[in-house]
Protein: SRR1L protein
Organism: Urocolius indicus
Amino acid sequence: AGAVRVSLCSSAEPPARCVCYGLGSFGGCAAARLQLAFLLLLLEELRVPPGSCSLFDPAFSALEVAVLQRLGLRLLPDNEEGKHGVEGSATLFYMVHCGKALYNNLLWRNWSAATLSKMVIIGNSFRGMEERLLSRILERDYSYIAKVLKGTEEVALPAHPRYLDTFNDTSIHCFPLQKLQGLAPEVWDCVEEPTYQHCEELEIIRKEDRAEGSDDAAAAAVS
């Protein structure tokens, strides 16, 4: 948590709020419990009140929702598919091991230099995505990740031998305004919403996917 704070020192302003996606079912998964514990440590280290941290994961059970609320955290009411607007507030996005489309959707939703500069993303390494994917696939399917790479400052989360599987390939991503303003003007011209028509494995649960056959589970969680 201290390493994250140090990495944020060059940011214009510290995060005032946090959004967490893809935490997973921490009631039955040890890795998810560790990720939740780290999230709570981060909030304390960065002095973000628990009530200013919102979470969403379709995997949460009614009991897990109750636990999160007991911890003082907020639950997002709907599946935003990662399309959460910063709305002028410096925001930390905690997205460990999320699908690439979720990061891409988040970037699209906040696609301007002024807005992206208010974001910090803790999640899968963007550099790792660039190395593992063919350039044409990255640019076709995850164009906003591809376009923001040169405007990103990325620092790998320090490795710990006990938690290699839990936080492997995890980095802290900042988007300094000066670097973003140095990108070619045409980078900002295209603001088309991603559709992922060519992706065979999307790695996220869409709103319509969740709606099919899950109404009873959703009702239970709300109650």
User: Anything to note?
Assistant: Confidence is low (pLDDT under 50) at residues 211-223.
